[in-house]
C-alpha cells in the first residue's frame, strides 16, 4: 500500500485516481475487454458500441433481444424472463433462518430512517403558493450478480421507494444458469415489497426497463449499481427514463489521528478493498505511527482473506496511506476527493463535522463504521461515487419523488405582481407575455 507524505503529493495521487471512469478506461484494461468482446461478437467492440447495439435491439425486438443477449453474454438460454411466485416461495427454504431474520431487521431499520426523511406537500394561501410532492408510479431496481451477491442492495434500493409511496416496483437481477436467481436476492426482494422480479441482467435488463417489453414493464426510473455495461446503459438511456446515478467502484476514506485504533482502520479499509479490484481504500492520518501500523497490519491480513486477490489488487493499485501535518489539510483533501464514504476516526469527531463539504455518507467515530452502513444502520448504501458527491446525494425517498410548485394567487396579489412582471417582459421583448399581464389589468 502506498505511503504518501505531504499535501501536494497526496492531492496529485487522488486526482490521478479520478482520471479513469466509464468514459476513460485504462488502456491495459480496455484491451482485455476488447479481446473478451471479440470472442463473443467476432470483433473488437468497445463497451459503448456493445451497449448501444443491445439498447437498439431491445427497443425494437423486446423480449426476443433480451433472451438473445442473455444467451450470448451469459452463455445459457432462459425459458422465462419473469420469476414465478413459486420460485420466490421456494427461495425461503434455501436461505438460512438467521439470514432471513437479519434481512427483516435491516429492512425495518432502513424503513424507519427513510420514514423520518419523507417531505410533505404544503400550501400558503396568503402568499398564493405551495408545493405538491408526489411519488413516481413505477420504478425498476437492479441487483448485480457477478463475483458476489448483494441482497442488501435490494433492501437499500427498494425500501426508500416503498416509503416514498411508489405504486409498483420491479427488480431485474441476473442468474448464472437457467434456474432462479440467488435465493437470498429473491427473499430480500419479497421482504422489501418488490412486485415483480425478472431474471435478467446487464445492459439488456436496463434497456428492457427503459423501453418496456411484452414481459417487462417500462418504468419511470431505474436505480441500483452494476458493472460497466449496466452503468453505460443507464447513462445512454438517461432522458428516456430517470436514472438515480452512475455508480463506480466503492470508495472509503478514513481520517485518523494519534488517538485512532489501527486495528479498526485496517479492518475498515480491507472491508472495502474486498469489493472490487478498483475499490479505493484511502487512509489520511496526522500520525505517522498510525500510518505505519495500518500499513503493516494490512500487509499481514490480506493473505488470510477469502477474497485476498481482489483486496490485494485494490490496495496496491487504488489504495494509499496519506500522512499530513494537520487535520485542516486532511479535510481539505477529503473535500477535493469527495469520497463516497468518509469516516472520522479521530478524537472529538463531532467538533469537526462542519468542515465536511463533499461526502456521500459521513461516519462519526470508530463504532459508526461503514460496514454497518452497508447493511443495517439506516440510510441507503447507494451513494455517489467518482467525485459526484460534489453535486449529488445518496439514494433516498427524494430519489423517487416529484416536486410540483403550485400557484394560487388571488386577484389583487396577481395584479400587484403583474406590474413588476410587465417591466421584465418588456425588457426581454416578449410582448405576448406583456399582453397577458396588461389584459388582466385593463379588465380589472
Tell me the domain tally.
Answer: 3
Rg computed from alpha carbons, rounded to a whole number of angstroms: 25 Å
Question: What is the CATH topology assignment of the largest domain?
Answer: Rossmann fold
Instruction: Look at the structure and give the CATH class of the largest domain.
Output: Alpha Beta
Strand order of the largest sheet: 1-11-10-9-12-13
- Secondary structural class: alpha/beta
**Oligomeric category:** single chain
Architecture per CATH nomenclature, i.e. the level-2 architecture of the largest domain: 3-Layer(aba) Sandwich
General shape: globular
Compact description:
The chain is an alpha/beta fold. The chain contains 17 helices and 14 strands.
3D structure, described in words:
- The protein has helices at residues 7-17, 27-41, 47-61, 63-74, 85-91, 97-115, 151-164, 183-192, 202-211, 228-237, 262-273, 288-301, 308-317, 327-337, 370-375, 411-427, 431-442; strands at 2-5, 122-124, 129-135, 138-142, 168-172, 196-198, 221-223, 242-243, 251-256, 280-285, 320-323, 341-345, 361-364, 401-407.
- By secondary structure, the chain is an alpha/beta fold.
- It folds into three domains: 2-21 and 248-377, 3-Layer(aba) Sandwich (Rossmann fold); 85-243, 3-Layer(aba) Sandwich (Rossmann fold), CATH 3.40.50.1980; 409-442, no CATH class.
- The strands form three sheets. Strands 1-11-10-9-12-13 form a six-stranded parallel beta sheet, sandwiched between helices. Strands 6-5-4-7-8 form a five-stranded parallel beta sheet, sandwiched between helices. The chain has a three-stranded antiparallel beta sheet with strand order 2-3-14, with no helix packed on it.
- Helix 7 (151-164) links the parallel strand 4 and strand 5 (168-172).
- Helix 3 (47-61) packs antiparallel against helix 4.
- The model has no long low-confidence stretch (mean pLDDT 93).
Amino acid at each position: 500500500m502506498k505511503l504518501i507524505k505531504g499535501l501536494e503529493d497526496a492531492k496529485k495521487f487522488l486526482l490521478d485516481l479520478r482520471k479513469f471512469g466509464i468514459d476513460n478506461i485504462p488502456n491495459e484494461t480496455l484491451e482485455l475487454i476488447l479481446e473478451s468482446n471479440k470472442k463473443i461478437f467476432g470483433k473488437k467492440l468497445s463497451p459503448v458500441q456493445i451497449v448501444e447495439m443491445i439498447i437498439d435491439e431491445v427497443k425494437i425486438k423486446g423480449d426476443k433481444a433480451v433472451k438473445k443477449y442473455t444467451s450470448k453474454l451469459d452463455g445459457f438460454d432462459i425459458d422465462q424472463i419473469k420469476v414465478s411466485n413459486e420460485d420466490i416461495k421456494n427461495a425461503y427454504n434455501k436461505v438460512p433462518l438467521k439470514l432471513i431474520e437479519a434481512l427483516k431487521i435491516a429492512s425495518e431499520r432502513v424503513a424507519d430512517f427513510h420514514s423520518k426523511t419523507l417531505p410533505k406537500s404544503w400550501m400558503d394561501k396568503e402568499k398564493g403558493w405551495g408545493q405538491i410532492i408526489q411519488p413516481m408510479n413505477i420504478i425498476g431496481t437492479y441487483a448485480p450478480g457477478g463475483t458476489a451477491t448483494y441482497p442488501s442492495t435490494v433492501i437499500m434500493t427498494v425500501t426508500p421507494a416503498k416509503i416514498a409511496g411508489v405504486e409498483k416496483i420491479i427488480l431485474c437481477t441476473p442468474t448464472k444458469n437457467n434456474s432462479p436467481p440467488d435465493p437470498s436476492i429473491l427473499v430480500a426482494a419479497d421482504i422489501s415489497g418488490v412486485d415483480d422480479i425478472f431474471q435478467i441482467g446487464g445492459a439488456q435488463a436496463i434497456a428492457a426497463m427503459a423501453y418496456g417489453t411484452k414481459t417487462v414493464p417500462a418504468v419511470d426510473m431505474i436505480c441500483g449499481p452494476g458493472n460497466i455495461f449496466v452503468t453505460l446503459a443507464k447513462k445512454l438511456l438517461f432522458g428516456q427514463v430517470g436514472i438515480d446515478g452512475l455508480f463506480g467502484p466503492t470508495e472509503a476514506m478514513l481520517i485518523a489521528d494519534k488517538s485512532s485504533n489501527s486495528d479498526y482502520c485496517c479492518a475498515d479499509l480491507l472491508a472495502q478493498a474486498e469489493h472490487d479490484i478498483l475499490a479505493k481504500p484511502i487512509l489520511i492520518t496526522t500520525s505517522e505511527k498510525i500510518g505505519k501500523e495500518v500499513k503493516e497490519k494490512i500487509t499481514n491480513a490480506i493473505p488470510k482473506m477469502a477474497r485476498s486477490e481482489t483486496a490485494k489488487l485494490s490496495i496496491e493499485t487504488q489504495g494509499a496511506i496519506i500522512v499530513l501535518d494537520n487535520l485542516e489539510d486532511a479535510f481539505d483533501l477529503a473535500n477535493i476527493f469527495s469520497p463516497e464514504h468518509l469516516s472520522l476516526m479521530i478524537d472529538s469527531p463531532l467538533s469537526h463535522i462542519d468542515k465536511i463539504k463533499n461526502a456521500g455518507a459521513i461516519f462519526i467515530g470508530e463504532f459508526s463504521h461503514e460496514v454497518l452502513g452497508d447493511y443495517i444502520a439506516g440510510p441507503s448504501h447507494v451513494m455517489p461515487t467518482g467525485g459526484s458527491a460534489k453535486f449529488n446525494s445518496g439514494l433516498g425517498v427524494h430519489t423517487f419523488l416529484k416536486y410540483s410548485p403550485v400557484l394560487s394567487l388571488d386577484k389583487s396579489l396577481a395584479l400587484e405582481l403583474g406590474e413588476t412582471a410587465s417591466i421584465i417582459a418588456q425588457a426581454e421583448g416578449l410582448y405576448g407575455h406583456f399582453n397577458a399581464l396588461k389584459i388582466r389589468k385593463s379588465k380589472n
